[in-house]
């Protein structure tokens, strides 16, 4: 580890709320004397008592020895004034998200701490460059953005402003590693990595809801059970709080000079206006009132299985269907070569394709095949319990039912979406990957950091760039280009770096 912050050096934490207390707990458990300060009288002492109780619980569960728990607790000290932080090697502030407050605090600290002390902000949204501006030594100011709850979440974004000394950023990166975290380097740009790259997860879901693709419960189920996300976007927004989520979206949108990629949703604005903030207010997209019944996702009813199932190789969908149908003893035929129009499956008259960003109706028109059915992306077609489909307007109910029956026979619950371009999982993953590619293209982070950040910071099942590699970058680019053509909006413009990768036939991550 870097000599800038040796093991056992004093760490100061300013702000004894949930984030500050969590950071203090991490540092104390890692062996550092910790001084915790809060302007509110008694807040630091109360937080320390809570942390010590947490250490005792960890010892009771066998996750810490009794001696280690006691020693970690003894390393925590409440500071009565900022002046008591003079011997700190690192100060991490976790105070209110206001630029003027943070600037004033760091200006005061400059006159107290030693010249080698690193000043870190846990800000999730304020520019590190702006926080450091005007200080005598802006080079020692950086971001150390933990995720809530800090003791449990692995990610730490180490954020460098324009003036930040790279050696100090590396020292904090190595310190976070020594604390058992998964740090990533990022530049100080709006949203850093996570709050920027994650915007499409909410934005595309809100747009799909606005276009009546399906209800919130169904879209959540598709994103969880097909996409592999831990929580669907609507239940996640309810958990975060719509006031918080909407404010972050607006902040990123305005910081990027109203780039349409980050445009807020009128649906979410209405929820905020109504006070329907999610779980904390008792109502958001779903009701959290006592006795409220959670709406169930729409699942297609059982359909009679038809004869004549033909598969074509070349897609993960077809390969997984062949295995799953064989396991359930459903007769089917697999061709030797891929079909020239890209279809995965033919059931009677219905041709089935993996979505490529066109609506089913547009694809039917382009292919000249009226009974066209599209299947949405899944994280793993071999294991997914649910798939989403959509049908061309000219597809008959009988043709659609035949496709549903085959998918059900393969063990999938089937949710039918209205015929929207790109469907749900595919368009969301394509947009997440596109935003991650833009972050890499603009030097905010590298591809590995983008994927680590989204997996460790928001529990995505796969890093968006690794996921794009697995889908095939050419297919992801095609999805984005078809979305851009369908909507006629700059929102879906493809990253220059993504186009370059496709042109050069190079993935984001070498195998």
Description:
- This protein has helices spanning 18-29, 43-60, 66-74, 99-110, 128-132, 166-178, 194-197, 199-210, 216-225, 233-240, 242-255, 266-274, 316-327, 360-367, 397-409, 425-441, 447-458, 464-471, 473-487, 496-503; strands at residues 11-14, 34-37, 76-78, 90-93, 118-121, 141-146, 155-160, 182-187, 309-311, 333-334, 345-347, 350-354, 372-375, 386-391, 413-416.
- Strand 1, helix 1 (18-29) and strand 2 form a beta-alpha-beta unit.
- It has 20 helices and 15 strands.
- The two termini are 29 Å apart.
- The strands form 2 sheets. It has an 8-stranded mixed sheet with strand order 3-2-1-4-5-6-7-8, with helices on both faces. Strands 10-9-11-12-13-14-15 form a 7-stranded mixed sheet, sandwiched between helices.
- Helix 10 packs across helix 11 and helix 16 packs across helix 19.
- Helix content is 43%, strand content 13%.
Brief summary of the model shown:
The protein has helices at 18-29, 43-60, 66-74, 99-110, 128-132, 166-178, 194-197, 199-210, 216-225, 233-240, 242-255, 266-274, 316-327, 360-367, 397-409, 425-441, 447-458, 464-471, 473-487, 496-503; strands at 11-14, 34-37, 76-78, 90-93, 118-121, 141-146, 155-160, 182-187, 309-311, 333-334, 345-347, 350-354, 372-375, 386-391, 413-416. It is an alpha/beta fold and 511 residues long.
Helix content: 40-55%
Radius of gyration: 26 Å
Silhouette: elongated
Low-confidence stretches: none
Q: What is the number of strand segments?
A: 15
Which strand order spans the largest sheet, edge to edge or round the barrel?
A: 3-2-1-4-5-6-7-8
| Average residue-wise pLDDT | 96
Number of helices: 20
Distance from N terminus to C terminus (CA atoms, Å) equals: 29 Å
Structural class: alpha/beta
Largest sheet: 8 strands, mixed
Strand proportion: 5-15%
């Amino acid at each position: 580890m870097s000599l800038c912050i040796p093991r056992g050096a004093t760490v100061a934490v300013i702000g004894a709320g949930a984030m500050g207390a969590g950071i203090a707990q991490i540092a104390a458990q890692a062996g550092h004397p910790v001084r915790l300060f809060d302007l509110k009288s008694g807040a630091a002492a109360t937080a320390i008592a809570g942390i010590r109780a947490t250490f005792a619980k960890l010892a009771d569960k066998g996750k810490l020895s009794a001696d280690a728990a006691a020693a970690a607790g003894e390393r925590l000290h409440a500071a009565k004034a900022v002046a008591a932080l003079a011997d700190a090697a690192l100060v991490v502030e976790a105070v209110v998200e206001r630029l003027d407050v943070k600037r004033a605090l760091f200006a005061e600290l400059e006159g107290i701490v030693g010249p080698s002390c690193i000043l870190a902000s846990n800000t999730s949204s304020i520019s590190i460059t702006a926080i450091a501006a005007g200080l005598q030594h802006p080079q020692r100011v950086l971001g150390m953005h933990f995720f809530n709850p800090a003791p449990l979440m692995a990610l730490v974004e180490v954020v460098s402003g324009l003036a930040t000394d790279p050696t100090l950023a590396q020292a904090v990166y190595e310190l976070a590693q020594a604390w058992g975290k998964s740090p990533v380097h990022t530049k100080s740009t709006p949203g850093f990595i996570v709050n920027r790259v994650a915007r499409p997860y909410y934005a595309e879901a809100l747009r799909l809801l606005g276009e009546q693709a399906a209800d919130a419960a169904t879209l959540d189920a598709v994103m969880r059970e097909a996409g592999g996300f831990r929580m669907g976007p609507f239940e996640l927004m309810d958990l975060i709080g719509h006031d918080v989520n909407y404010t972050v979206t607006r902040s990123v949108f305005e910081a990027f000079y109203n780039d349409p990629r980050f445009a807020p949703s009128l649906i979410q604005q209405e929820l905020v206006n109504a006070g329907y903030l999610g779980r904390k207010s008792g109502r958001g997209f779903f009701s959290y009132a006592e006795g409220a019944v959670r709406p169930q996702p729409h699942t297609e009813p059982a359909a009679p299985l038809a004869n004549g199932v033909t598969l074509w190789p070349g897609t993960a969908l077809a390969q997984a269907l062949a295995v799953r149908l064989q396991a359930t003893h459903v007769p089917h035929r697999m061709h030797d070569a891929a079909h020239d129009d890209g279809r995965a499956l033919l059931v009677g008259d219905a041709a089935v394709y993996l979505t490529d960003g066109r609506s089913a109706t547009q694809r039917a028109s382009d292919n000249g095949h009226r009974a066209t059915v599209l299947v949405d992306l899944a994280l793993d077609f071999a294991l997914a319990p649910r798939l989403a489909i959509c049908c061309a307007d000219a597809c008959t109910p009988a043709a659609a039912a035949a496709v549903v029956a085959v998918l059900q026979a393969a063990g999938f619950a089937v949710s039918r979406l209205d015929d929207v371009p790109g469907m749900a999982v595919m368009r969301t993953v394509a947009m997440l990957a596109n935003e991650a590619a833009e972050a890499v293209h603009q030097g905010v982070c590298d591809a590995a950091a983008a994927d680590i950040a989204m997996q460790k910071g928001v529990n995505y099942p796969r890093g968006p760039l690794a996921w794009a590699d697995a889908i095939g970058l050419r297919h992801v680019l095609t999805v984005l280009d078809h979305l851009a053509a369908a909507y006629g909006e700059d929102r879906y413009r493809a990253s220059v770096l993504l186009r370059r990768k496709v042109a050069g036939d190079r993935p984001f991550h070498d195998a």
